Amino acid sequence: MPYTKYPTQKEYREIHESSPMDGFHEAVNFLSESGIIRGYLPPKHLLSIRSGKPFVLITITAKTAKIGGDMIVGIQAGCRYDGDNSRSGGTQASRALKFNWHYSCGESMSLVLNRQVPNARKLVLGKSGTWVRGPTYEIGKPALKRLIGSIGKSLTAKDERRKFAQISKILGGVAIKTFPKVSENSDFELNVADALKSDLSHVVGKRVPDQVEVRTYQYQRDSKVAAYALKHSNGTCGDCGNHAPFKSSKTGLPYLEVHHIKMLKDGGSDTTDNVVALCPNCHRKRHYG
């Protein structure tokens, strides 16, 4: 099957990071913000998306596009509609444009294709059919089967195939677990960085902070892998070499935190050769240092 030249995943991310996003970039956003993808839905999106149930988005380009038209560019599963929200995360350029976002999904369930799949509308409509609603269209089971097969054949990288295998489980009816909880704003660190540039001489704050329900996405980690890292650390931090600061009341072992050397959101594996037990200070340094 011939493939039209289209930006690779790396090139796509470089476009996001180096230049302000226009409406197209926003509508097909695959850029992770601390493990979460936030995307824009055009005005004509299906009302069923607002039902609160998780949905899958298969993104295709316009058939009339001069370059890369009528192509499947990516797939996102476990998406949920979150209402109309102002974008505060992402790059400085995207924040400056004050785009809104409507849905979110976990980065682990979001795949932008290195090799885009051509003839997207034919795969959706079959041998006959009419595109009755745009720019979103509800896909039936026969079309979904065709799309899954075509996307699967286009995958060349190991990480792509692994991620698509997880997404395929959801497409096959396996539910994704989400964990609603009361939490601080996930963009808090970015907001602090912006606040440091402002006048803070008259800041008071709120005596009774507001609470919001935030939907988060968690990886299903193997508890035995974490236990292995803790047991084999002998109570010593893998970075600074100091002994753990106290004993854990839950495990009875010296308290250390298990860190993935290549983080899960970046495609790292949950295996014993990709984890290290760290003291709280070194763990924070790995993430924020």
UniProtKB/TrEMBL annotation:
Keywords, ordered alphabetically: Endonuclease, Hydrolase, Nuclease
Residue stretches making up the HNH nuclease domain: 224-284
Family annotation (Gene3D superfamilies): 1.10.30.50
InterPro entries: HNH (IPR002711), HNH_nuc (IPR003615)
SMART domains: HNHc (SM00507)
GO molecular function terms noted in the UniProt entry: endonuclease activity; nucleic acid binding; zinc ion binding
Keyword Nuclease applies: yes
Protein name: Restriction endonuclease
